[in-house]
Design goal:
3 helices, mainly beta, 6-stranded antiparallel sheet, 11 strands, single chain, 3-stranded antiparallel sheet, 177 residues
Amino acid sequence: MKIRRLVTGHDASGHAIFLSDETAPREHDFGDIPGHGIAQVWITDTSSGSPTTTADPTLRHASILPGPGQTSLLVVSLPPDDVMTAPLNPIRAYSELAEKLPGLFECFEADNPGMHKTPTLDYAVLLEGELWLELDNGQEKRLAPGDVVIQNGTRHAWRNKSDRVAKAVFFMVGVEQ
């Protein structure tokens, strides 16, 4: 998933400058799950959000999830459930998911596909398509483009019951559990 990312900063005189204008380097399209892709656009090291270096923080963090007081911006494309639950090569797909979604992959429940809980407060915005948010008690709500979910660290799953790929942005704030 290619996402153009512009990063601003300051020059030696304190004036605003563009530090970079390029594709977010931590991105991936999952070969065995057509239509599923991720791009971690940014992650902060501290609660201030201001970078202390020009080095890309997404490449320094092992986990996609932010730690307490940190933030992470993730763009995700989710294919229809019938594609998501039937990878072309399941063994290779799960290995790829584990490699490309460190920290997040471990939050998913093996006996309840898609259900997970993360140590984060998430602001989710649906950009394209249609998604259903399922809670652990079975309640569901349909989301349309432009809808926003405030996910308060609850057990949940994202379901795509449509026949086309959905795209969403997740702004995650790390919290203590």
